[in-house]
Design brief:
Blueprint lengths: L4 H21 L6 H4 L1 H20 L7 H27 L6 H24 L2 E6 L2 E6 L6 H18 L5 H18 L4 H8 L3 H19 L1
Antiparallel strand pairs: 1-2
Helix pairs in contact: 1-3, 1-9, 3-4, 4-5, 4-6, 5-6, 6-7, 7-8, 7-9
């Protein structure tokens, strides 16, 4: 995340509260995968909070590679799979599922490549102008194709889904992704993960809408 350790830890606390609220709204096991996303972002931001602290405390520098790699596991491996999976698992329209399955497969392929990259190339983090820049030593040639696939795998499923208001999440991810790419390109990994945490509020609204519709139908 960007800004500071305090911002990261504060955001983690808020996200944990949103996660609890989301879980309480669920009335189906299939909704759990979507409802627990805020907890994942909360843990990710705790990790980045400690990354910030280690920049200011050299005595704990030995933990930095672990913390940086753990943060990147969330951003590069977990989310490209988990976001399309949570939408696919929630979808009831059988005609939409094949398209969602293809997007999930794209996420799996991208995550597999990122696993390879984290194992084979060096990773690092540096601070500049109150932002953290994460660097993975994979070939720059694959950076743009990888970014496009990441966007497709995490954005398009929300527009295919028939779940009420799910498209809100797609719009928000797209806008936040575009915003960070245009204005914070060098720090896009950190800043996007920070901005995208607001997506958890949309997840709450999606689950709230589904619960209200369920009550009306019953």
């Amino acid at each position: 995340m960007c800004f500071s350790a305090n911002a990261s830890f504060t955001s983690a606390v808020i996200l944990t509260g949103i996660g609890v609220a989301c879980v309480k709204l669920t009335f189906s096991n299939k909704q759990i995968f979507l409802a627990v996303i805020p907890f994942g972002f909360a843990l990710q931001q705790v990790l980045e909070g400690f990354v910030w602290l280690n920049f200011n405390n050299s005595s704990h520098a030995g933990w930095q590679p672990f913390l940086v790699s753990s943060f990147l596991i969330f951003s590069h491996i977990i989310w490209p799979i988990y976001i399309p999976f949570s939408i696919y698992f929630l979808e009831k329209n059988l005609k939409r599922k094949p398209a969602l399955k293809i997007l999930l497969a794209l996420g799996l392929i991208l995550s597999a490549y990122h696993i390879y990259s984290l194992l084979m190339f060096s990773v690092s983090a540096s601070v500049n102008q109150h932002h953290i820049r994460y660097t993975i030593g994979h070939p720059d040639l694959l950076l743009i194709p990888g970014s496009i696939i990441y966007g497709v795998a995490t954005i398009i499923p929300a527009f295919i889904s028939t779940v009420p208001r799910m498209w809100w999440m797609g719009v928000f991810i797209f806008v936040s992704y575009l915003f960070t790419y245009l204005f914070y390109r060098s720090y896009s990994i950190s800043v996007w993960c920070f901005v995208a945490t607001a997506m958890c509020v949309i997840i709450y609204l999606i689950l709230l809408r589904s619960r209200r519709l369920s009550i009306l139908q019953n």
